[in-house]
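Justification of resources, computational component.

The compute hours requested in this renewal are based largely on the per-chain cost of generating structure records like the one below. Each record pairs the submitted sequence with a full structure-token output. That output is archived, and it is also reused by downstream analysis tasks.
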Amino acid sequence: MKLRLILTAIFISVIQSAPTMAADCVKACVDVYTQDGQLIFEARKGSGPSSSKVTKPKVVKPKVDARPKVVSKPKPVVKPRTSAPVKKAPAKPAKKPAKKAPPKVVAATSLSDRLSKSLPTGGISYQPNFKPLIHTPVYFWNDLPSVFRTQVNLIGETIDVVLRPSYLWSFGDGTFLATTDPGGPFPEGKVTHIYSQPGIYPVLLTTTWNGSFSHNAVERAITGQIKKVSVLTITVVAAPTRFMN
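The structure output for this chain reads:
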């Protein structure tokens, strides 16, 4: 009896600890991930909830006959009369029943769809926008949104996606800056750099997108990340100097 109670408790705890995604996949399975720099949406219909009823076997109780058995007296044996054997016609062979075709197996999931979506690539701006000077702060920024939201409908299922960017600036002179601020022009911009030598510098901006998606009020993280690279060339000059009395 104790062993039966322990097994029942374990069975109930396993059911309660099962992930919500398995229950969600009964009607529809949805997944969002990244591949080759794009956002991939996948959805498929499930086969519906399975029957959880357990039929108990019927217990047939043997019938007990309370009446005593009556032993009958043996009857006298009468010898049968011998007669000539009668020839019987040979019986026709019985026809074999036709074989039934096996039932066809129908796939449980027959409706699915897939969609890919590209994310925007931001442009780079800077100020002063014409030959900035050495030893003077240069302000950089990009035109990407701080939050990227989109909604996709696949096979009747609605998927909401929220992505946020992070930035890695490479100013071309061996200096890097990692930030979540998009930057801005003078005087409120927070992404600035000072060049110490004149020259032509390639400025690279690497944008990394991360986020989550929601389906049926359940939020999950998007597997992987998407990186976009923007390039700009900037020319920095030296200011002429004069000595005055």
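The helical segments are 2-16, 20-24. The radius of gyration is 41 Å.
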